[in-house]
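Re: [ENG-882] Designed sequences occasionally contain unexpected residues at chain ends

Forwarding the minimal case from QA. Structure tokens:
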């Protein structure tokens, strides 16, 4: 299945120290700055980034099932994700101090198309990954009430 698997990595700037920046990349933390992001937890949870936590999201009429695979509190979180009949893989977010009071956030998506129908959406996502992360940087800055940084997204 040629063109059906991608590893996409990029980094963005967040004007918060690492522990505070990390909180923005938990399921509930993303609700603060991602339009339409509404995780649903089939089981109640007080710690939404604890390994083993399961949640679902729905965007563009697609259901995605997520599982927190691993976590280093305040530093790193990995999610396994499946969009049934389309694509599956992992998302890892790593947060480091930038030396100026803020954070550099490295985001890696490793995704595989599950069906021929999943190839197109995955190819589109890969092609727009840099702009996707830039939109995160802009949306987070807006949430924080600060101007977005100069285009710092690196892939």
């Amino acid at each position: 299945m040629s063109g059906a698997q991608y590893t996409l990595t990029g980094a963005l700037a967040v004007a918060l120290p690492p522990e505070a920046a990390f909180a923005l990349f938990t399921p509930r933390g993303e609700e603060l700055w991602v339009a339409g992001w509404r995780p649903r937890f089939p089981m109640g949870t007080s710690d939404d980034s604890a390994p083993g936590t399961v949640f679902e999201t729905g965007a563009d009429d697609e259901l995605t099932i997520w599982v927190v695979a691993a976590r280093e509190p305040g530093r790193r979180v990995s999610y396994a994700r499946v969009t049934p009949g389309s694509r599956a893989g992992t998302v890892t977010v790593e947060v480091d101090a930038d030396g100026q009071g803020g954070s550099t956030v490295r985001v890696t998506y490793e995704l595989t198309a599950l069906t021929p129908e999943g190839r197109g959406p995955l190819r589109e996502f890969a092609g727009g990954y840099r702009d996707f992360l830039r939109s995160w940087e802009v949306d987070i800055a807006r949430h924080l009430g600060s101007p977005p940084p100069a285009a710092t997204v690196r892939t």
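QA comment: On inspection the terminal residues look reasonable. The first helix runs from residue 18 to 23. Proposing we downgrade this to a documentation issue.
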